[in-house]
From TrEMBL:
It comes from the Bacteria. This is PEP-CTERM/exosortase system-associated acyltransferase. NCBIfam families: exosort_acyl. The keyword Acyltransferase applies. InterPro entries: Acyl_CoA_acyltransferase, PEP-CTERM/exosrtase_acylTfrase. Keywords: Acyltransferase, Transferase. GO terms for molecular function: acyltransferase activity.
């Protein structure tokens, strides 16, 4: 009976993905954007609680004593679009924000990074900064995984596309990261944002590059809870690159129709890999 139920569940999942009821690439997680009028709501508290767990308790980047309510927040939260990832049990497992600071404010990276003399900032209304990207510890597979959920093996050359050989290495394909970035991408396209800034470690920049996100350094590395370098990516160039190098991923990001044979191939490969385990 257990095996029959499992087969039924797997078949239903495959059908849901084929019919579009679940995401074709990341069916085990749900990704949401916090509505602009719900900044004081429960979803934001879940996001800030997860950030507290990672930044304060786990990494000691911030002092727990400064957050008596165990919610990590700052002056940029009210000027940001927030995104969250959930598992099937509706537990928050990842989050990121895209900061759109007010005219009188700096971008977060400007507080601790410098830029090259020849760098020219794009129009302010067309740019946002990726910030507070974290993944829950139980969804980081190995000791060497970064807090963004990127494994050491992936950085050092693991496949950027799921492969049947990854049955025991599912954490090497950072699908949580990819799903959060897709939500930010869709938000940016809807709101006229063409450029993303990000201050990040070399390992994350390398991982993103291997997934098609070619961030360009705009300044030297600096020590900010570890070595980070300010980067920028042009979403127009990103879209063109994906359409040229990875048409499936480009269609997935832009919510364009995906050919049936591509869907079937994706389903077969991901079924061989199996569902991710976060606990």
């Amino acid at each position: 009976m257990v095996h029959s139920a499992s087969r039924y569940s797997s078949l239903r999942l495959l059908t849901d993905r084929l019919l579009g009821k679940r995401d074709i690439l990341i069916p085990y997680f749900q990704f949401v954007e916090v509505p602009a009028d719900e900044y004081e709501g429960e979803l934001m508290r879940q996001i800030q609680r997860l950030r507290y767990e990672v930044y304060c308790v786990e990494r000691n980047f911030l002092d727990c004593e400064d957050y008596k309510d165990q919610l990590e927040t700052d002056e940029y939260d009210r000027y940001s679009a927030h995104f969250a990832a959930f598992n099937d049990e509706r537990e928050i497992i990842g989050t990121v924000r895209l900061v759109h600071p007010a005219e009188h404010m700096l971008y977060p990276f400007e507080s601790h990074c410098t830029v090259f003399d020849d760098f020219r900032f794009p129009p302010r209304e067309k740019a946002g900064e990726i910030s507070r990207l974290v993944v829950r510890k139980t969804y980081r597979r190995r000791r060497g995984d970064s807090m963004e959920g990127v494994s050491r093996e992936f950085v050092q050359g693991g496949s950027a596309t799921p492969s049947p050989r990854l049955r025991e290495q599912r954490g090497n394909s950072p699908l949580l990261l990819l799903g959060l970035y897709k939500e930010m991408y869709r938000h940016s396209r809807r709101n006229g944002i063409r450029y993303w800034y990000a201050a990040m470690e070399r390992s994350l920049a390398r991982s993103l590059d291997r997934m098609g996100f070619k961030f360009v350094p705009i300044g030297p590395a600096t020590d900010y809870y570890g070595p980070v370098t300010p980067h920028i990516v042009d979403l127009d160039e990103l879209s063109a690159r994906l359409h040229s190098e990875n048409p499936f991923l480009a269609a997935w990001f832009d919510d364009e129709p995906i050919p049936l044979w591509v869907k079937m191939k994706t389903l077969v490969v991901s079924t061989l890999i199996g569902a991710p385990r976060g606990k």
